[in-house]
């Protein structure tokens, strides 16, 4: 069995407790306009072209059988995506790594070999491994196999999910997961569908069922300007979460524009508004509805 993985990030500090390694699965069932990992949305391999890194060596032009690359007037390559087959021949010869294939099939053995390199750091810090994405539960069978292998190695395991998958996907990973990091974008159905492409009914239903299993859950809420950054939005979510079991904490994540360069590398453009950095006073205001209900809450600095 193999899974489509696009990155393995070691020494991660914001994907669960302690020092962790985060395995990023490719493919997502949501299309959030603010997505920080736009390369995770497609389930298939993609070619990323970071044109500012191009040195004009022409190696990629010679390697491409489809003539999808040509030299621009600024002595940097130009990628014609309508001709590209995503074969990866250009990426193999690019000395500057301006061209990269995003996504590769890996076995659980291959991934676990990387994860075990930092086992002493996990043990000393109370950390472990986190599977994220994209949506890792879209590859539930592979996720379950990987998590089981990690549990067998004595590693703490966490699943970062947006919850928009069949409940059966949760059932496959539940026996091997110590902690769920559950994304909650908002509770207004129309706004949720407009912002993410899907209704939130499945997400909420799965969260409620997961809560009733006794699972440990951290709720992660991205604070998006113009979407869910008002006190009314947080009050509604705090009221909802107050009724659920197993919620260890709520994490509010700041909005940023770090995905713009990734979008450009994929030949896409950003539709995101200019970043609005919350003041410490504004962040504290958004925490209050949770604090008022004795829900552990923290604001993650960018």
List keywords for this structure.
302 residues, alpha/beta, TIM Barrel, Alpha-Beta Plaits, 2 domains, 9-stranded mixed beta sheet
Structure notes:
There is one protein chain. The chain has 302 residues and is of the alpha/beta class. The protein has 2 domains: 2-43 and 104-299, Alpha-Beta Barrel (TIM Barrel); 46-102, Alpha-Beta Plaits. The protein has 11 helices and 13 strands. The strands form 3 sheets. Strands 7-1-2-8-9-10-11-12-13 form a 9-stranded mixed beta sheet. A two-stranded antiparallel ribbon has the order 3-6. Strand 1 (2-12) and strand 2 form a beta hairpin. The protein starts with a strand and ends with a strand. 37% of the residues are buried. The model has no long low-confidence stretch (mean pLDDT 94).
């Amino acid at each position: 069995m193999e899974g489509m993985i696009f990155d393995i990030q070691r020494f991660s500090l914001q994907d669960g407790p302690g020092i962790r390694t985060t395995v990023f699965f490719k493919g997502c069932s949501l299309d959030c306009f603010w997505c920080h990992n736009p390369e995770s949305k497609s389930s298939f391999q993609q070619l990323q072209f970071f044109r500012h890194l191009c040195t004009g060596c022409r190696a990629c032009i010679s390697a491409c059988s489809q003539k999808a690359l040509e030299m621009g007037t600024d002595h940097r390559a130009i990628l014609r995506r309508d001709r590209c087959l995503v074969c990866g021949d250009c990426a193999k010869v690019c000395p500057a790594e301006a061209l990269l294939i995003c996504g590769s099939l890996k076995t659980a053995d291959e991934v676990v070999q990387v994860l075990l390199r930092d086992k002493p750091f996990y043990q000393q810090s109370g950390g472990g491994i986190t599977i994220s994405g994209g949506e890792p539960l879209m590859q539930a069978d592979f996720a379950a196999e990987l998590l089981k292998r990690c549990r067998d190695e004595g590693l703490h395991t966490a699943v970062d999910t947006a919850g928009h998958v069949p409940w059966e996907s949760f059932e496959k990973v539940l026996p091997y997961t110590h902690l769920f990091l559950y994304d909650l974008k908002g509770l207004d159905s129309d706004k949720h569908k407009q912002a993410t492409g899907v209704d939130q009914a499945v997400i909420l239903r799965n969260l409620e069922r997961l809560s009733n299993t006794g699972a440990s859950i951290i709720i992660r809420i991205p604070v998006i300007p113009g979407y869910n950054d008002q006190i009314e939005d947080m009050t509604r979510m705090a009221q909802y979460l107050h009724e659920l079991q197993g919620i260890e904490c709520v994490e509010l994540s700041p909005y940023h524009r770090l995905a713009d360069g990734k979008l450009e590398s994929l030949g896409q453009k950003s539709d995101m508004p200019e970043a609005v950095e919350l003041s410490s006073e504004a962040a504290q205001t958004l925490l209050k509805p949770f604090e008022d209900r004795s829900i552990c809450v923290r604001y993650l600095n960018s």
